[in-house]
Amino acid sequence: MAVDITDQNFINGLIEQERRAQRPRGRWLVVPILVLTIAYLTPFYYLFVTIFKTSAEYAQKGVLELPASLAPFADNVVQAWTIAHLGQAGLNSLSYAVIGGAIAVAFAAAAAFGMTRLNLIGANGWFMLIFTGTLFPFQMYLVPLLFGYQRLGLINSWLGMLLVYVAICIPFPLLVLRNSFSGITREVDEAARIEGASEWRVFISMIVPNAKGPLIALFLLQFTFIWNDLLFSSILANGIEVRSIMVALQSLQGTYSTIGPNVVITATLISSIPTVLLFVVLRKYFMAGLQLGNK
Amino acid sequence: MATVTLRNIIKIYGEFVAIKGVDIDIEDGTFVVLVGPSGCGKSTLLRMIAGLETISHGELKIGGTLVNDLPSRDRGIAMVFQSYALYPHMSVADNLGFGLKISGVSKSEIERRRGDAATMLGLDPYMDRRPSQLSGGQRQRVAIGRAMVRQPEVFLFDEPLSNLDAKLRNQTRIEIKRLQRQLGATVVFVTHDQVEAMTLADKIVVLQDGLVAQVGSPLEVFERPKNQFVAGFMGAPSMNFIDAVVGPNNTIEAGGISLPVPADRFDLPAPGTSVTLGVRPEDIVPEGHGTRPELGADFTAPVNFAEMLGNESLLFADLGGTEMVARMQQPRPIEPDQKIGFRIDGRRVHVFDKNSQMSLLR
Ligand SMILES: Nc1ncnc2c1ncn2[C@@H]1O[C@H](COP(=O)(O)OP(=O)(O)OP(=O)(O)O)[C@@H](O)[C@H]1O
Ligand SMILES: [Mg+2]
Asked: How far apart are CA A57 and CA A68, in angstroms?
């Protein structure tokens, strides 16, 4: 017997059946998701109640209790800004993160181009050399670096910090870009070469635009790493004119007795603004991840 | 436009000899097709002309100048890749203009040439689109346009039609041919499709295993194949081959029949010598279909299998233990195992030496 597709009840039954099959699975996951969400949001809640408390209020009330008014926030900001010299430190870190991140990604891109396109002698050797550096903990070369910097007079200098950050931030982008670049079909650069493009032209006009997503995402990652770095900056650059924002934050905590956690927390909030902003602005590239493509 | 000359060209990949000494002369303004089975070295040869592969040995001249060591960009060539290799991040307009722009051609001149190419290829509506927003056929035309605007001495095509569906392929094939006539261009075109080769070429170069098997006009290559490989490669369905023996008085004996052949067609060895007989499917004529060949031999055999193609049928029938394909014009339904009379056209068959596989055509 043939099926009767004019029978609306029958069709409705099928529609319902399909819909049931399409429904997202794992409803039992709701409970663990809720628990995790609460656990995840608690520190944020703490942050938001704390920045609106005065030091005295913070000392009296329970840590999760609501503040009396929103007014103390402005004072907290002013205190954090002036005591820790956040303005200077923020500017320092911004310059390290923007310039260091950009130079590192640019170098990594150039190296990746050389390794994937130029048939350079010992390309794999270079890659291994650059990459094995990341196998060891930073602490391992911190001490020799410190002595070296002291000899060279790079300690406590802007240039010294920039150099360290550039060097540290090359290997990971190189690893990613080497893959990205090999994913761009060779025929595209062959076509460009036939049309008269030099190697430099191929790099700038063909490879870079086609790897825009990964390049931007990698820059964002390196920016965040440099911005959040405490290890190198606390050891190599403590001076107030060159110290990074994380060192400035640390200095606040060092004088714990006089400055309340409400100010410290406010300072951390301020210090996280640039990375969050950058992520929001560039999230399109970040979501696309380290994939190639240009949409 | 220019001539292209290849002399004793050899290409070695690692320890593998991919091209084994190739000579080809391409005259100014001719359409040359390199054809051969997969892996015979067509792309390699084309990429050597383009300067994308080094030349291990031999001389390559374009327009009379030795270009072995000249970089691609100075060879005056343009290439259309199988994958089109359009610049994915650029609009169609920029794809067409890139090469001119980087070689410092003036803006107005770029506009003019780009406009001409776009109009000629019907690309005007798509100038602002990215390659990913185009159909396969449109991408194909952009790739051709990109080659055209540079006004190269020589166009190189590497299987540019293989990604298109059958209908578009036929259409584009005709367009390419028309374009080449219009521009008077020298074209080297690679394909493994013998129909493409036959229809496009002024001159076909059949490659076999890194060597030139035969060079000639399409008709020449089809009618007078130099060896069994070329005979089998050109023509679809393939030529039938059957073991045979030279008989007395200009006859060939194969599969129990004695086939008379014209006295002046072959240099036949002494009677009794083993040879290979080659017969194209259209030269095995089913009784009552098409014109009955004057000179020939009849055989009757049950049809093992019939393949209906609409305007014709392919019949598979045994001749002395070898399955032969025959072409039936204006087909009628055939029952399995139905016995049918065939007549082989003795004036059109080919005979090959058993050992060297060379044709014995005179
Ligand atoms: N880069 C390479 N390294 C080593 N061997 C290669 C390389 N490129 C091609 N070959 C080999 O050379 C031979 C010819 O290759 P080529 O690409 O020219 O074949 P083709 O005739 O274009 O085949 P197709 O019709 O499949 O494209 C093949 O056997 C192939 O395996
Ligand atoms: Mg090929």
From this structure: 8
Of A181, A186, A188, A194, which to mutate for an interface test with B (greatest number of B Cβ within 10 Å)? A194
Token look-up 């193609």 returns B309
Q: Is residue B194 part of a domain?
A: yes
Nearest to B180 by CA among B163, B203, B162, B164: B203
- Is A63 exposed, middle or buried (CB count within 10 Å of its CB: 0-12, 13-18, 19+)? exposed
In CATH, the number for domain A81-292 is 1.10.3720.10
Measured distance CA(B74)–CA(A194) in Å, rounded: 8
Token pair belonging to B330:
């204006």
Per-residue model confidence as pLDDT tens digits over A138-183: 888 888 999 999 999 999 999 999 999 999 999 999 999 999 999 9
Range(s) of the domain holding residue B154: 4-233
Contact A193 B87 (CB under 8 A): no
| B359 assigned to some structural domain | no
Chain B: closest CA distance from residue A102 (Å): 22
Q: Please, is B95 exposed, middle or buried when counting C-beta atoms within 10 Å of its C-beta (0-12, 13-18, 19+)?
A: buried
Q: Does a structural domain hold residue B227?
A: yes
A43 interfaces chain B, CB cutoff of 8 Å = no
- Position B355 pLDDT exceeds 90: yes
- The CATH number of the domain where B167 resides is what? 3.40.50.300
Quick one: average pLDDT of A244-248? 91
Task: Report how far residue B11's alpha carbon sits from residue B6's, in angstroms, rounded to the nearest whole number.
Answer: 12
**Preceding peptide of B271 cis, ω within 30°:** no
Give the nearest partner residue to B83 out of A185, A197, A212, using CB atoms. A185
**Rounded Cα–Cα distance for residues A281 and A277 (Å):** 6
Interface residues of chain B, partner chain A, Cβ below 8 Å: 50-52, 71-73, 77-79, 81, 83, 85-89, 98-99, 102-103, 130, 132, 146, 150
CA B307 to chain centre: 25
